Amino acid sequence: MLPGDPARVDRIAEVLDDTKELAFNREFRSVKGTYKGIQVLAVSTGIGGASTAIAVEELARIGVKVMIRIGSCGALQPDIRLGDLILASGTVRDDGASASYAKPIYPAVPDTKLLFECIRAAENEKAACHVGITRSHDSFYIDEEEEVSKYWSERGVLGADMETAALFVIGGLRGVKTASILNTVVESEDKLEDHINDYTSGDQKMMHGEKLEILTALNAFVSYDQL
User: Fold this and answer.
1) Which domains, and CATH codes, for the chain?
2) Contact 117, 66 (CB under 8 A)
3) Is 67:42 a contact under the CB 8 Å cutoff?
4) For the whole model, what pTM was predicted?
5) Would the CA dihedral through 95, 100, 103, 108 be positive or negative?
6) For the Nucleoside phosphorylase domain, which residue ranges apply (predicted)?
7) Which end of the chain is more exposed for a tag (fewer CB within 10 A), N or C?
8) Selection from 62, 72, 71, 26 nearest residue 41 by Cα
9) How far is 75 from 221, CA to CA, in rounded Å?
10) Pairing mode, strands 38-43 and 28-35
């Protein structure tokens, strides 16, 4: 399980059994444990595609075969509210990390079976869930941010993060089964700089969304392991 924020590893550990912290260096913090009888490793990736790429590469090299990102995103559609989950069925590769691995025509998509198990798990948790295309990018603060967000919103993109494209592309190249579950922390009509601190201070709706994405990912692991 791949959260961005190292602090989110603590919230994952709360629902695991037999937990053990393994390492914490820079943005990379790792904890292992069990959930419903299966082994789970949680590793934070920090912010952005570059650090995510490092985490995915090194985990793949030690034999990890299934990875689910549990991150945060800004919504690009007006019907997506704070705390809603977005499950990425594909991602616009508007980032530098994935571009360093493959030409832009290479698709950034999750593993189909793993995505279906995430959808099923989210439905079982009765989470407000949206499935569709997301966008990965490299900065929240470009001068044309409003215009860029409007462009992708008009093309049906659900939300934006900074890591999913790198996960999907590298996973595809390295034979890793991947999925991405994103918790909405900024609504489409809000400015990021005005509302992102609500998440870090623990806004109730967004923290509930985080809990749901953790449980969704864990239960997706369990059901996928039984396929």
Assistant:
1) 2-225 (3.40.50.1580)
2) no
3) no
4) 0.94
5) negative
6) 3-182
7) C
8) 62
9) 26
10) antiparallel
Least reliable range by pLDDT among 7-21, 40-54, 183-197: 183-197
The pair of structure tokens assigned to 209 is 């969304």
Encode pLDDT of 159-169 as tens digits: 999 999 999 99
The contacts of residue 197 (CB under 8 Å, 6+ apart) are: none
DSSP string, the chain: -EESSTTHHHHHHTT-EEEEEEEEETTEEEEEEEETTEEEEEE---SSHHHHHHHHHHHHHTT--EEEEEEEEEE-STT--TT-EEEEEEEEE-SHHHHTTS-TTS-----HHHHHHHHHHHHHTT--EEEEEEEE-S-S--TTHHHHHHHHHTTT--EEESSHHHHHHHHHHHT-EEEEEEEEEE-TTS-HHHHHHHHHTT-HHHHHHHHHHHHHHHHHHHHHHT-
- The token pair at 175 is 């034979």
